[in-house]
Please model this.
Amino acid sequence: MNKPAASPAAARRAPNPAHLALLPMALTALVVYLGSMLWSLRISMSSSRSLPMQDFVGLAQYQRLFANERWLHSLHNLALYTPLFIAASLVVGFLLAVLVDRQARAGGLLRAVFLYPYALSFIATGLIWQWLLNPELGIQQAVHGWGFAGFRFDWLVDQDRVIYTLVIATVWQGAGLVMAILLAGLRAIDADILRAARLDGVPAWRIHVSIVIPMLGFSFATAALLLLTAAVKLYDAVIAMTQGGPGTASEVPAKFIMDHLFGRANIALASAGATIMVLTAVALLAPLLYARRRALRASR
Amino acid sequence: MPVALKRMIVATLLLAAGSAAGAAGPRAEVMHWWTSGGESAAVRTLADAYRAAGGTWLDSAIAGSEQARAVALSRIAGGDPPTAALFNASRQFRDLIDQGLLNNVDAVAERDHWAQFLPASILDAVRVNGHYYAAPVSIHMPTWIWYSKAAFRKAGIAAEPRDFNELFAALDRLKAAGLIPLAHGGQAWQDNIVFRAVLANQGGAALYLQIFRDRDARAIASSEFRAVLTTFKRLHSYVDAGSPGRNWNDATALLITGRAGVQIMGDWVKAEFAGAHQDAGRDYGCIPGFGPRSPYIIQGDAFIFPKSSDPQALRAQLLLAGTVTSGAAQLAFSSRKGSIPIRADIDVHTLDPCAQLGVSIMKDRTRQLGNDESYLTPDQNGAMADVLTDYWNRDRDVAAVQRNIAAALRE
Model:
């Protein structure tokens, strides 16, 4: 909005130092990210197994991919997981942010406590979740020990419910980040608006629903964007908690890709899967990015 | 003083350089995944043997077999290969041979007459088109049936089960005694081991080979194979609720503490028992299979030797191939690894009773069978494991499972 006024000719002569400074990063992004993507696309159209090959087999790997029951099941699991994970993280994160915001004294401490899970490696915390949720070791066993023999909480070993345990554990991890983003948004809201509403006798819940949440649009969109990318690449939680099991009940696309890339020595099929994941992510992210930009414009 | 110090440093550096140049024996960077306590003690015996033979062993250990192989593959593809890398003696390195990326060690293999003492399935894996591309180091047997003597006593089981009927009877008694009958880790590869144990012992060697080696559609659709799948599924009713996702060593711990009766797993569990100061024959029993003709499934590990621009590499590789397969190195290595030696021509009375039992079975060549990986590509093997773990965990129509296995092996 307030660019320095320079003649077009002068701009052409002297390159913008900011652009120059960003050049290495831009090159890295182009060569490493885009280059790797194109390389994966190329490999996905070859018959490569353990080593890259330069032949061309068209879309045969994609045909094989979509005939594969485990891949389809992985996509189904991700479709179930993603909306639940994002919705639950946003709701829990928002409630935490409001809680922290209203605590003048303990706010700083609470913020650190809630953000802490995000700072821990999920490979470590996932193992603890596995123990907690294991019916023979964890919560179920403890409640039995207190005398409630009928209590059942065995979702981790239940074919149809295991995916929800992944939602629980990853929301625990992700909600702190949402809280931090929304808290920053909350603090940026003009205190006079809230004071005026309070003077008018508007109840606190109504202030949050009708004023705060609409004004947090940009923060919500940012959080949703981060959560969506986290959901699509869901991998470490599965590895640490279920290894895709019981059976294939908690398989996800990223694990399918990693398994075929290394253990099953089929990098062509893995690359086809990776390409599909990139396309899916772009298709999902584009509307979100658009919404985020609109929210940003609206907030100015 | 500073000048004197400087001179001293220079002299020391020169001395170090001189001694390095003097020890210009073969240098081998060896990549492997043997990182647990017992495993690293085992690999140290190989390093010692290599040093004693005049070589320099550069240890490059990477935790996790898949990761280690992935790193080795990418270094080979990137033109910076290690001198030797550990793979399973299987089809895992067939692509590397086909693309001409491996050196052969024919000179050593023919000098030491490998063809005379290697089991057929190992020989088939390391010898391709008449050339030897890998040096085998160990033979594991993945489908042993282990049992806790304390648990058997508690359940009143007097004799070792000798067939599947007796095994199921024993499992029923264990269940009645309030113990976990079958200690099982519900991970796809462990489900797969239980399946192979049933296929080899109930289906027999002929059916085993028809399924894995021939990928015979008629055998997969047969009623014998259906019976194997039914027995496999029946074993699932003897696992506890905590089984899904459990690690194999946690399952072994259930046997060690006497809370569970039986585990079907490879002979690497002996390291867990040894770690808890339990002895074969006294605290736990090992059943290699049912009946006097039960097959012995061979899961081998072998070093491969990537081609390199370094002219010294081949010399180091040949020395390594000769050293790790020698009788003395094999004996020292096996006693720590829990495996049995790759050669039948050495005295094994120093090994534990289960290993001695294994060696005596191996003497009968007709009882040797390759592991699934010896016959299937990693991809086929993985697709089949997906079908089996799904069947183990869900209620599936057996006929549909047979069709899915046929589809998995068709690729």
